[in-house]
């Protein structure tokens, strides 16, 4: 072998010992880690040989996204998968500005997160690709005006649609006190993505297409378009399905010159105050999930009562039937779009007929006039017997801000 060939061979990084290669790979963030397998055969072998480097579980089931650490200027989000075989491996991703701990999270779909910055403006971000899309400012909503003094934004004034009076929020309070949930129809960079938000007052709906400069208010004559609690987009009929607090269900069509809303399930008399999700199952049924979670902050034992029920909605019969069998699937609920069903046959960690819930409720402390998020729980609910178990020990230092959310990672730009 000639001297030049020997010199090149000594510098060939593909010949690093596997344990040293693995050590290098553990310092990488998720996007770079996912690309290492394509570098060369030696790096691919090291990646596959060390189970701590295998990021494949992230793409087999929804994972939790949260902030781990105390640095308020950190750009890093952490992803933790339920499908990792109990390894509890944390994958790190650095997101673009603003810093992740300064954001509030209130939605996930198509591999993207809906977040709000310190001015309460919404941004969609993909943690895997680091792509980010800014939505129209909160000040462009029909019922919001900006209060500016000496060139500085002081507050948002939120007007009650069709009612007298208004509420005022500080710029950073709007994301907690104003928004309820965010859902979008497709990959935000697809060119035809519609974003819909439930917001104050009275849980009304506004919408915009990615690229718009203003939000539009959902308003239809002779129909009550308020008190919404959850919604999803059905790509098969290109409609949004939204459920109100009284269980009334609307379809919302935003593809014509004007929004059209149709009542497809009439209101029901409900025995208790609960939170409702609306879900489209893989077998095409539309399900209503009622979640009741009572947490007594004045109780020394942190008394908590959690109840959940799932109902199949019959739009023709105008009836609901309780179901306790999800057909071999598990359902993930929270700030994510209520569309995360996972078949459990190929994933031993995820159990069938279970609901995995990442706490998405906010307590309002009327005595102090503040919103006070309680320590959030990630729980597994057995529909067959109603038992509730913590997925991770609670409370966690990272469980309040930003709120942990289920995400199905995606490489879509």
Automatic annotation (TrEMBL):
SUPFAM superfamilies: F-box domain. Residues 81-366 form the KIB1-4 beta-propeller domain. It comes from the Eukaryota. Residues 13-46 form the F-box domain. This is F-box domain-containing protein. The lineage of its organism: Eukaryota, Viridiplantae, Streptophyta, Embryophyta, Tracheophyta.
């Amino acid at each position: 072998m000639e001297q030049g060939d020997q010199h090149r061979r000594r510098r060939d990084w593909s010949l690093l010992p596997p344990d040293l290669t693995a050590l290098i790979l553990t310092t990488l963030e998720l996007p770079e880690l996912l690309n290492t397998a394509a570098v060369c055969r030696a790096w691919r072998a090291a990646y596959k040989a060390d189970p701590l480097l295998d990021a494949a579980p992230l793409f087999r089931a929804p994972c939790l996204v949260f902030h781990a650490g105390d640095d308020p200027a950190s750009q890093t989000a952490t992803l933790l998968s339920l499908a990792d075989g109990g390894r509890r491996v944390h994958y790190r991703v650095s997101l673009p500005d603003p810093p992740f701990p300064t954001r509030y999270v209130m939605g996930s779909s198509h591999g993207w997160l809906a977040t709000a910055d310190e001015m309460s403006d919404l941004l969609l971000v993909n943690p895997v690709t680091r792509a980010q899309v800014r939505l129209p400012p909160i000040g462009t909503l029909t019922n919001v005006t900006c209060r500016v003094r000496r060139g500085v934004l002081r507050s948002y004034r939120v007007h009650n649609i069709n009612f007298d009076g208004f509420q005022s929020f500080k710029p950073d309070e709007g994301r907690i006190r104003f928004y309820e949930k965010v859902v979008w129809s497709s990959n935000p960079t697809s060119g035809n993505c519609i974003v819909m938000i439930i917001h104050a007052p009275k849980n009304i709906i506004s919408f915009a297409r990615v690229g718009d400069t203003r939000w539009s208010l959902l308003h239809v004559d002779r129909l009550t378009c308020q008190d919404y609690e959850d919604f999803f987009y059905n790509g098969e009929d290109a409609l949004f399905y939204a459920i109100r607090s009284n269980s009334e269900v609307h379809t919302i069509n935003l593809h014509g010159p004007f929004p059209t809303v149709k009542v497809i399930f009439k209101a029901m008399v409900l025995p208790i105050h609960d939170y409702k999700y609306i879900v489209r199952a893989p077998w095409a049924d539309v399900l209503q999930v009622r979640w009741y979670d009572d947490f007594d902050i004045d109780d020394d034992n942190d008394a908590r009562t959690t109840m959940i029920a799932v109902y199949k909605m019959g739009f023709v019969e105008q009836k609901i039937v309780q179901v306790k069998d999800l057909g071999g699937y598990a359902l993930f609920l929270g700030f994510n779009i209520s569309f995360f069903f996972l078949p459990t046959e190929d994933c031993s960690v995820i159990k069938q007929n279970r609901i995995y819930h990442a706490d998405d409720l906010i307590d309002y402390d009327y005595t102090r006039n503040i919103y006070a998020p309680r320590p959030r729980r990630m729980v597994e609910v057995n529909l067959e017997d109603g038992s509730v178990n913590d997925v991770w020990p609670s409370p966690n230092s990272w469980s309040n801000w930003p709120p942990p959310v289920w995400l199905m990672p995606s490489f879509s730009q």
